[in-house]
Amino acid sequence: MALIDVVNLSKAFGPKVVLSNVNLQVQEGESLVVLGGSGTGKTVLLRNIMGLLTPDAGHVAIEGKIIAQLKREELFKVRQSIGMCFQMAALFDSMTVFENVAFGLRRHLSISEEEVRSRVDECLSLVGMKGTDKLKPAELSGGMKRRVGFARAIALKPKILLFDEPTTGLDPVMTDVIGRVILDLKHELGVTTITITHDLKSAFEIADRIALLFRGECIACEPPDAFKVNPHPVIQQFLRGDADGPFLQDPPPPKRKTKEGQA
Amino acid sequence: MVLTFIDKTGASVLSALDTAGDFATLAGRTFVAIFKRPFDGKNLLNQFQAVGVHSLPVVILTSVAVSMVFAVQLAFGFRQFQAEGLAAQVEGLAIVRELGPVITGLMLSGRIGSAMAAELGTMQVTEQIDALECLATDPIHYLFVPRFLASIVVVPLLTVISIYVGFWGGYLILVGVEGQSAFVYSHEFYKLLAFRDLRIALYKALVFGMIIALVGCWKGYRTQGGAEGVGNAPTSSVVTSSLWILISDFFLTKLLLV
């Protein structure tokens, strides 16, 4: 049985269909990367997995438990086994870094403050943020916030980690740092991960399998090597990063000629 | 034409019912969540400080101002009939029964209700409330309950302070300016009042506290649309809670004075 089972998942907001019959299975310990253009429903997929949204049709099951059918208390139990890393980190801005990472520990575990401190230090070290525990989120850069968000997500030792565009808006160097942190977490914690990203370099480093969402449908889900050579024109256009092709619904503006006269 | 009108009216009624239902559901969830664990004492104390301690100056200043203005009006009015002695009695009646709780309620809806709406609204649009959900924490329990508890305790306490300060505001004008006897003022202030009047004032303050916290939290929790939404939430919260404070004041007065 797959640890995460997405079955015929559909979700629309008014007339806009965001996900249409998406099927994905993620095995324990596996790392799935979900690629896709903006607005193709990648974040909606993660929010359905977390139970933050309810599917219109189909379902998401975690360890065989159908998320949309769980009572609130049961859902909270399942959520304790999932760490969610938000696109903009979503740190609690009224709290320090320490309090952010300690939040789940203090609320769900009956452990001493010393144990909380030691676990927070451990988590911050894992993401390379040791010594920042007294800072407020407003004092951190974008990349630092994401890493503190990772530390908060792993504090309760979850089985599953979900990353929502962890590198968006970061410079190439910080993007590489975040990619390495995700790889480290994957290897050191042995967790199952789903990562949504636009960064192909880290995607191929992280992924055991890569899925591509296109207009609400999952058009491929295969190992990186197979994905690279998949002849589907949408996949090839996405890998090339070219505006011309079937990927965009509206035609892109024409390419201007350069000074040398080349298109 | 007629069909369009009926269609629009129906849609408005459905939308209003939808809004009322949403508020009632969240209010009900808040009442239920009060008894849930874990109990977050630190969070509750923070709210007591934000709602109570920081609101003291504004409540004291407005109570002094309103009671002084009211005393000036009463002294002027009763002087027309050579009945200045009644001014202290009416001042006492008005401050304890109406001005104390209503002024405190309205000022706090502006100060703490709007702050709750802005804070929760910002948390909503920056995904902090989703983060709470993902950390297996019920936002109603974590965010609504401490604010609600702080509000229903603090608003009656501040109402008592407002009444006490109102007494001295009236004293300043009627004794200090109008030259009435301090002994007579102190005696007359309470002459028309019974313990029931203070009880009514506290019941009103309790209800106003519930309205302020629930409306403030609800408006913040339902914020949508980024900076514009966060900007609208406090305004909407103050308008809605002030309106409900005044409406509920009428019904509470009718009900409790019987």
Write the layout of secondary structure elements.
The complex is a heterodimer of chains A (263) and B (258).
Chain A (H helix, E strand, L loop, with lengths): L3 E10 L2 E11 L4 E6 L5 H9 L6 E6 L2 E2 L5 H8 L2 E4 L11 H12 L4 H14 L15 H13 L5 E5 L7 H18 L2 E5 L3 H7 L2 E6 L2 E6 L1 H5 L4 H8 L23
Parallel strand pairs in A: 3-8, 3-9, 6-7, 7-8
Antiparallel strand pairs in A: 1-2, 1-4, 4-5, 9-10
Chain B lengths: L1 H32 L7 H11 L4 H24 L6 H40 L2 H7 L4 H39 L4 H8 L5 H27 L4 H31 L2
Task: Walk me through what this model shows.
The complex is a heterodimer of chains A (263) and B (258). With 263 residues, chain A is an alpha/beta fold. Chain A folds into two domains: 1-81 and 159-248, Rossmann fold (3-Layer(aba) Sandwich); 88-157, no CATH class. In chain A, 36% of the residues lie in helices and 23% in strands. Chain A contains nine helices and ten strands. In chain A, strands 6-7-8-3-9-10 form a six-stranded mixed beta sheet, sandwiched between helices. In chain A, strands 2-1-4-5 form a four-stranded antiparallel beta sheet, with helices on one face. In chain A, a hairpin with a 2-residue loop joins strand 1 (4-13) and strand 2 (16-26). The radius of gyration of chain A is 20 Å and the shape is globular. Chain A starts with a strand and ends in a 23-residue tail after the last helix. The relative contact order of chain A is 0.16. The mean pLDDT of chain A is 88. Chain B is built from nine helices and no strands. Chain B has 258 residues and is an all-alpha fold. Chain B has helices at residues 2-33, 41-51, 56-79, 86-125, 128-134, 139-177, 182-189, 195-221, 226-256. In chain B, helix 1 crosses helix 6 (139-177) and helix 4 (86-125) packs antiparallel against helix 9 (226-256). Chain B folds into two domains: 1-33; 45-256, no CATH class. The model of chain B has no long low-confidence stretch (mean pLDDT 92). The N and C termini of chain B lie far apart (48 Å). The A-B interface holds A 47, 50-52, 72, 76-77, 79-80, 82-84, 86-88, 90-93, 103-104, 107-108, 152, 156 and B 38, 122-123, 126-128, 130-131, 133-138.
